[in-house]
Amino acid sequence: MRSLQLLALCILSPVTAYAFPGTLLERESDLLAAYDYVVIGGGTSGLVVANRLTENASKTVLVVESGQILNGDEEFNDIMIPGTTSFTETRFTWNITSLPNAELNNQTRTVVSPWIVGGGTALNGMVYDRGSKRDYNDWAEYVGDKGWGWDSLLPYFKKAETFTPPSAEQQGWGIRWDEDAHGSDGPINSSYPTFLYPHNQVFMQAEKALGIPIVKDQANGDPIGSYWTPNSLNPEGKVRSYAKNYHEIAKSRPNYHLITGRTVTKINIKNGKATGVQFSTARGAALTTITAKCEVILAAGGVHSPRLLQLSGIGDSQLLKRFSIPVHVDLPGVGSNYQDHSGIMLAYNMTLNPDPAWLTSNATYRQEMLELYLRNRTGPFTIGYAQRLSFYALPMITPGYESLLSAAAADPHSHLRDGTHPTVLAGFRKQKRILIASFATNESAVDENVITFASVQRPLSRGYVEIVSADPFDLPAVDWRTLSNPLDRGILVAGLRFARRIMARPELAAWNAVETSPGPQVTGDEELLVWIRQTMTPTFFHSSCSCPMGKREEGGVVDAKLRVYGVKGLRIVDASVFPMIPATHISGTVYAVAERAADLVKETW
Prior knowledge:
Strand content: 15-25%
CATH topology: FAD/NAD(P)-binding domain
Shape: globular
Radius of gyration: 24 Å
CATH architecture: 3-Layer(bba) Sandwich
Number of strands: 25
Number of helices: 18
Structural class: alpha/beta
Number of domains: 1
Largest sheet: 8 strands, mixed
Helix content: 25-40%
């Protein structure tokens, strides 16, 4: 009877019962005591869901964000100019250092976790692409719900996007597009930078000579090959387009609140239901409690969503008991299955004109190009991270792919962390079977290459995120466990060998390229692995998969409707729910997942 009463309250609560000026709040005294929905995190997914829910004027929504919001000149100078992208700008990220990575000579690295309204889309390289149909269809197979396959997600990719086709000049560079694959009225602009680095065209010729297809448009679900990528770029002004746009649309609504500078310390749970949240401005400061009449929506990202669940008593009971946290739900999958993209770049001395490296190595050139951008919005500062990308399937980069996959499939060892819970192990075995089947085709990428790069795009290695105490202001332990699975090592070595094959092509002869690191004398697998372990990066800043969709008995944390197992009124809508990371830069996928998540919430109305 109580659950029916709560449902009725959620559906019937009228906005007209109280004054509710939609706005950015600064004081706790301006908050209501209760909202229909409380969204934890004003990043990419949180702003999407809050925007869509407040389209219904009868639903009140509060977004709680730990970081700051930028406006005016500060936003323009620090965020909006594409060529000034800084992934690790410490003013806008949490100060997290990873645990030592056993396969990378126990090196530690910064774990980039955004701390700003707009989340990762305020800081990322602005690449706006999608994974392959197979990547998302693998999700649907794993979860057992076609709603997470390509055909179901495509409308949500399009819903987020306003696409501007290439100009006549850009079409002359070779850019093509599939109009049916793009959206036309979403909050996020996608378009092509107005500057061309001509070496990209030459590189594509060398790839084509080795059998790599030139992709018409990555947005149509077939991005395997080499392609020109849109950026999340507003064609008017040539500035970043990011998730704050969803806030700008919602902020005039009388049923929307956003408060910043507040860190959620706990999700309150009573009688098996999430009833609201507690938050504070700092350790030791007063706590504020807000009630969620319908749902708490967790959108804190791949690192902080599992951390908050654990602090709130949802997670592996053994971990929670270690820190005397009352166990509400014994859910061992929380914080497991953590994934990211990783990679390494061969170093070459070569002649490119103009060279993208000049923007960092030549202060005079950088200033001239910045002034060019500020004057007329042209030049290399219109590019975020890249204007052309290559994603390779395993059969494209090595003739020995079958032996690599056979060894991975037959291996009796899981290569997971010692003490992995049996449910998590069951889920990994299922994922591995699905992934290996995909790797044997040309339908899913395993390796991204910009020019001299090799990467692991759909890893079998699995990391974890765990609290280190019951103090919500203690940062979590994060371990990517990069290259802990030998198949990932094999793919990375194959990717490096293929990058060398491209660089040796006659089409690139004018570059006069000479490999300097690790050097052409380093050829054996083990020699390459020694260099890899010294040099590679374990992260592309794509933290994901740490609260995965899936069956509970297979390590799942949320079901196919993104509801957290074992507790009512709690849903997760960010990249942590990915079961397997797709081979793509993930911002476009996060937008699509969040757009669908909003519709899943609306199904309860």
